Predict the structure.
Amino acid sequence: MRNKLTKYIVIVSVLSVFILILFPLSTQAQSTSPDQEVLGFYKKYMIACDEFDNKPKKGTVDDLFCGVDIKRYITEPLLKKLVRSYTSQPTGDLLPPWDPNYLGDSDYFLHTQDVDAQWSSFMTAKTIHEYKNTSVVRLFMDLPKSSGGPLAICVRVLRGQDRWKIYQVDLATDNDLPTCKGR
């Protein structure tokens, strides 16, 4: 009887250790859905940009993105393109001024010049298309008329090692809404 009890204790102990080791790893490996990731980024980004003007600047790349750790949310190629555009003189904003899609001095992610933290409560996101490691998410901002009215943006994301990352934000004029299919 004692031999069976010892085997039982050893088996339970080994299984317990195995479960404790794997449980944290499995929870870290899980990623949120593309629309949850996009909505989470946009809410954080919008609130940070609204508060950013009153904060001291660090003189880093994060200053270009309202102090948000942008590397966590966008792909490396997009980051390089944005940094190159934002730091070029005159400011490039990815397109030349004669291009009809030129953003001027508006924000790449929001397609607006101004931002209000309260707008974050007016946002919803929906995954429109998902194929393998890419997805298209439509971000809808039901902004008040005093702020320009409703705005929809198509956000293209790529699954990274641990999360979905933005690799392109399309102008609404470049996409048929609500499907986000390019023209």
Observations:
- The first strand starts at residue 123 and ends at 131.
- The chain is about 30% helix and 20% strand.
